[in-house]
Structures
1.
Amino acid sequence: MHEMSLAQALVDQAVELVRLDGCSRVLGVDVRIGALSGVMRDALEFCFPAAARGTALEGAELRVTEVPLKAMCRDCRIESRPKPFEIQCPHCGSMNLELSDAREFKLVSLEVE
Amino acid sequence: MCKDCGCGDANHAHGHRHVDTEGREYWHTHEHDQEHEHGRTIVVEKDVLSRNDAIARDNRQWLDARRITAFNLMSSPGAGKTALLEKTLAMLPHGLHPAVLVGDQETDLDARRLRAAGERVKQINTYSSCHLDAAMIARELGTFVDEHANLLLIENVGNLVCPASFDLGEHVRVAVLSVTEGEDKPVKYPVLFSSADAVVITKTDLIPHLDWNREQCHACIRKSGSRARIIELSARTGEGMDAWIRYLQAMMRHE
């Protein structure tokens, strides 16, 4: 359960952007979570309000977009969306896959006023 | 009065722009009496862990400048990281000068155990945190870790989930998996295993007492998306330790 550290890192990053921008308050925070990022959406949503308390992000809406894993099979060259815990080409059974960058955990944008 | 256009009718629709998470722009309209706050959008597109990653990059640079190679050992609690390090320190060939950092939430039991092997060992207590991060390592560079070392061994907090997300500035990521944990841990925790450079399977002396299946375990490691080097060993009997030591030597970047 490292989502509290992650929520804290997210808030720290946003607070710095708020300082540079000069806006008064953040209404919404858009983040993107890759299937292999190790970030649990529910846990992050649970931790975010606590990390945001007392900052310009207090009360902001956290909007999460989850990015599925994509894999290109190096053998049959068909692209698929394997489950993160069963990385095998569903077409030919090969495990020789080129995985999409599903490790990302990105702050996409801030909605501010 | 409408505050958007200044006309007398407060109840007509206005449109305005949004940018969604994919960066697409669109407009929508809504009536004035709807409670609906909108603000300006600042597009960021930056890794949330960019601060950790930046410190990790600095760590790696610092280590490179001093010709030190760093290994990050990660596993569940009880997989045998400390036993592996104990045996490793006892067997290190001439020319390898280790510094060892061990992470645990509480106690310095592991550090004391390793210090008995006579090497430079320091405990990092993470307290509420379930993993080491790059800043915790940065504090030890130039203080505890100095030019006398050419090998930095980092024993992460026992946890198969969180350490995988935090780059420490290491050069080599090692996942440690004991045979008593079963064959399927790598597919249950693919984030850690798929990013490891090596998977060390420990406690192989216990295989005769278990239903552990080698082929299945290796298949699970590959299924996690891992292309790691797999090394099987028993720190207790010493079997397979030579292959691990050779791997350490082969991965030294500055020899």
2.
Amino acid sequence: MSNTQMREDEILEGIRAHDRRALAKMLSICENDPNLANVILDKLEKKRSHVIGITGSPGVGKSTLINAILDKMNQGVGENVNSIKDMGTATNKKKIGVIVVDPSSPFTGGALLGDRVRMQSHATEENFFIRSFANRGALGGLSPSIYEACDAFEAFGMDNVIIETVGVGQSEVEITNIADTVVVVLSPDNGDEVQMLKAGLMEIADLFVINKADNPRSQILLSRLRKMMITGDKDVVICLTNAVTGEGVEKLIKELDDRFFQILSNGVFSLKRKKRLLHHAQSIVRRELDELIQKFENDGTELKEIKKRLLEELCRKAHKNGS
Amino acid sequence: MVKVMIAKPGLDGHDRGAKVVARALRDAGMEVIYTGIRQTPEQIAQTAVDEDVDVLGISILSGAHMKLVPKILKLLKDKGSDVPVFVGGIIPREDAEKLKEMGVIEVYGPGTPTLEIAEQVKSFVEHSNA
């Protein structure tokens, strides 16, 4: 649904020519007709972007941190690495796509998408593209068409795709299926040591950020995090930032670039991409199943029979689509 | 799904109205992008295009509507967008008429019931898609 329609071939041509309007329309197709989006995206070559997931509780400063990252990148911080041989040589400004997700209402389906408020100073930058998504009931803190949206940004040739999840609790870990690097943002009032030990969110970090580092309590959090790491088997870099002033953000960008270089060379990147493809397929099948369930009228059939019918319908649908 | 953007151009910081309307449209089942106060016409037009919104609402209480609204309309046109635009705020009646002549689809003053705005916004989108 959009005011001016663009034909499929216009969108393809537009994306290849780096026309923002074509990307904007493509992202709407991703949201409203992801199956069609996949067909179109299949025809486009995609850049190997560094997909960075930013996650954490509501109000820890995820959006503000992304704004600070964009500020610094605009000043030329961060390397334009797309292969190992680029390392240390590339100088041009990075092209960055930002996907921000906020929750939909479970009652009305409406949403208030407010992440952009923190990033509006970058709304007119040519090398940045920010897009808001409602999670439309999807579990895991992302949008149901997040895979398609990420592909669209890669097709547009972004160097980085930054995905901000909804403000999460403890168990929304879907971001780890799509991002090459997951940044978990914490703030000094995140709770005691037991919170650090819990499974879920704390485990998925490839990089921790303690934001609001001007708060003296951030040192306590830092020592708790370090203690947690000593007893675990994963050594994760911790960055302290103050997203409002930009303090510590340069170091964070450097750590992100280092990490990208590292995963490109140690094979983790290609492993992550294989997994991402699998989860993309899973999201498509899940969507098909959700559609079937919505149409399914239970007239008192037994559980076993319902399951059988759903699976049969799913197979029939797959054959019909030739996919 | 209807996607709306609510924007506040210019220098006044009175965002209560914009927030009340954003909230009402959210409760009417729309996806509402709120971009915060003190936006330039360029920021607003580019965001509306990038977000591919179905309708754009502009809130102004500073009295600068006759300067800012035409600027936004022109920028949108330059960027190839024909998104319907409505305006809310303290707008004198004769200015409201002029804004409508320029292409603004509706102007809402203080006291307009939010349900009325929500219903009309939905109908703007239906008309522009038809």
